[in-house]
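Troubleshooting log. The previous structure file for this entry was overwritten by mistake, so regenerating from the original sequence record. Sequence copied from the archived sheet and checked twice against the printout by T.R.
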Amino acid sequence: MRSVAIGLMVMAVASAKKPDMNKKAHESVQKLLHAQQAELAGGLFTFGTLDNEIEGWKEAAQKGKEENQRIEDMKDSIGEETFDMINEQLAGMNRQGMEKQRVENRDGSTEAVISRVDPFAIDKTTVTIEQFRKFAKDTGYKTEAETFQWSFVHEKCLSDKMVELVDHEEGLGRVKESPHWCGVYGAYWRRPEGPDSSIKGKGHYPAVHTSWNDAVAYCNWAGMRLPTEKEWEYAARGGLEDELYPWGEEPDDGNFSQLLNSWEGKFPKENPAYDGHVCAGPSDAYQPNAYGLYNMVGNVWEWVGGGTPEKRILRGGSYVDTIDGSANHLLRVSTRMENSADSGGHNTGFRCARTIQKTKKKKQKKHKTQRRRTDL
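Regenerated output below.
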C-alpha cells in the first residue's frame, strides 16, 4: 500500500495501452546512456554518518528520547483529540507545540564503518524529464503517480489555484502531521505541480513523482539497474575521506547557496532561494564533485537498490532538507531515509548504475632460466 496520511483514497484506473514491461531500449540508445555515465574504480571508503563523533550528541539524543516519551504519555492520558486541540491553541498564540524530536542520527544514517565496493558506472545526474519521456514513449509505461491519479507536492511549489483546489472540500487535503505537503490530483512527472503546470523548457530537470518501482522499470529499460546504497555513497563522496559534503569541507564563509539546493529560511513558509530554487532545480545545477557527479546532496531524494517492499531506501536528501538540520533531514553525503516501494512525490527521483567487469590480470608465463656455464 502507498504510504499516505490523507484520508481520501483514489481508485486506480487501468491504462488503455498496456505497457511492455520487458521492452529494452534500442542498443544504440543504451550505448549512448552508458557513455554518459562516470566509471568508478571502487575500493575502500567511509560508509555512514559521523554524527556520533559530535561532542554531546549521544547525551542530547537520550534527552530527546525521554522528552518524546513524556509527550507520548501525555497524549495517551488526555486523548489524541484534546492533545491536537492544545497544539492548535499553542500555534494560534505563536508558541511551539508539543512535538516529538528526531532522536536518531540527524541525517538518518547509521554509524560510520569502512566499507568496499567493486568497479561500477553511475549516471552523472538524476534521470531527467527528457530521458524519462523517451522511456515512457517507447514502452507506454505509466508511473504509479499516474495510476493513483495524484501525488504529493509542497505547497510552496503550487499555484494559488492548486492550493485552493487542495483545500476544497472535494480536494485531497494535506498530510496531517506535515500540512505543507499537499495531495494534488493529476500531479506526475509530466505535470510536476499539478494540471496547471508544464515541463516545457524543463527537459533537463529531474523526473520526479517517481517511485522505487518506476525507477527499477526505467533502469531495466536502459540496460542498467539502481545503484546499491554503498555504491551511491561511494560515488557521492567523490573520493574524499571523512568529509561531510561531496565537495569536501564547509565553505569558509558558511555560504552554501552556490553549492547545493536546500531549504533556506524558516521551514515551511519561508525560502528566500539564495541558491536559485524554491523547489527542485536542474539535474546538472551547481558544480559536480571530483567524480563528475551532480547534486548528490539536496535537490531531490534518490532511490537506490536494496531494502524491502515496505522499506525501500532513498539517499541524498532534497530541497526541503537543511544544511543545519533545523528542518527535516540534515544534508550530508550520508543522508538517508526509507519509504514504501510505491511511494513518490515532488522531491523524489533516481539515477541508474551498472556493473563494470573487472579486468583480469594476465598471468605471466614462468620461463626456466638457464644457468650460465662457468667452466668455459
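The first helix runs from residue 27 to 35. Archived copy saved in two places this time.
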